[in-house]
Each structure stands twice: as structure tokens, then as C-alpha cells.
Specification:
By secondary structure, the chain is mainly alpha-helical. It has nine helices and two strands, in the order ββααααααααα.
């Protein structure tokens, strides 16, 4: 099966894979998938925001960071209540070593969902970069590990070399790590 590009101005429906004009997505959800009006609007908003994040990630990987930033900004404007969108925006800023901007996005995400391990791991990462292995950084790491030790470890391994993750384990021996 070959992957075809989604036409400009359209979004791929995650359920039926039909390319739909973004503004028509709530109607599509109602007609094709039996969503009620409110559920259709809520789901469409989330899909549109995550589509913008996906496209922003692609632009960033293709060497167009300014265009990517515009799409990340649009994504948080479309759905400012989605902590995942804030996490993805924070990860974009982390990749560009824009720690202050990353922390703003992390804090916005945590204000929405303080049960997201990746957001706590991201906060640990930023604090570690600013302050080293201080108490606040350790508390963030501990919280992330309590929420999801596997998810936290995977998130950190994408950002730290393997020996640094082992060093973290030794530094915070009282924390729980999946092996």
C-alpha cells in the first residue's frame, strides 16, 4: 500500500481515512460516524489540532522551523485545552534549545493535566539544563516515574545518551525504573 499525500486544506479522518476539509470535519463525524453535535465538534477540534502538530513536526524535520512554529502556534490556538498539543510544542522548543519557551509550554500543559508523565519528564529536562540535578528537578523526575516509569524512561532516552540515563538512575536510586 502506498501512502498518498493529504491534499492541502484537508485533514485525514482518523476513523475512515477520508480526506475532509477541516471546517467540514464536525459534519463528517456526525454523518459518517454517528457523533452527536457536541462530540463531533470536540473530536474535530482535537483532530485538527493534532493534524497541525503532525504537519509542524514534518516541517521541522524538513528544515523549515519557522513554518513549523507557525503550525504549533495554530495548534495551541485551535485546541488550547489539549495537554498533548502543549507537550509537542514544548518538544519543538526543546529541539531548538529554547528552554524558556519550552518551559512555558510545559507549564501550560501541566496546568491542564498534571498526570502526564512526559510533561513532568520534560520539566525535569528543562530544570536539569538550567540548574543541574537539583531538588526541584529530582521531584519532577520522581513524579514522572511514578506516573509512568516506562514512558518516562523512553522519553528521556530520546534526549539523553544511554550512559546519562544510567547516571540518572544512580543519582536518584530511590526512584522506580522499569528494566
Amino acid at each position: 500500500m502506498t501512502r498518498q499525500a493529504v491534499p492541502a486544506g484537508k485533514i485525514l479522518c482518523p476513523w475512515c481515512l477520508e480526506a475532509v476539509v477541516g471546517g467540514d470535519l464536525p459534519d463528517h463525524f456526525e454523518a459518517a460516524h454517528n457523533y452527536s453535535g457536541d462530540a463531533a465538534r470536540t473530536s474535530a477540534t482535537r483532530v485538527i489540532a493534532l493534524d497541525l502538530v503532525y504537519r509542524a513536526d514534518s516541517l521541522f524535520r524538513d528544515g523549515m522551523p519557522d513554518d513549523a512554529l507557525g503550525l504549533f502556534e495554530a495548534a495551541v490556538e485551535v485546541d488550547p485545552s489539549d495537554a498533548t498539543v502543549w507537550l509537542k510544542k514544548a518538544e519543538f522548543h526543546l529541539a531548538r534549545e529554547e528552554l524558556s519557551e519550552a518551559m512555558i509550554s510545559i507549564e501550560r500543559g501541566l496546568a491542564l493535566r498534571d498526570d502526564m508523565a512526559q510533561l513532568w519528564a520534560a520539566k525535569f529536562f528543562v530544570l536539569e539544563q538550567f540548574q543541574g540535578f537539583g531538588q526541584e528537578a529530582g521531584e519532577c523526575l520522581n513524579r514522572a516515574l511514578r506516573l509512568s516509569s516506562t514512558g518516562t524512561r523512553e522519553w528521556l532516552q530520546k534526549r539523553f545518551p544511554a550512559d546519562s540515563v544510567r547516571d540518572l538512575q544512580q543519582k536518584f536510586q530511590d526512584l522506580t525504573w522499569d528494566e
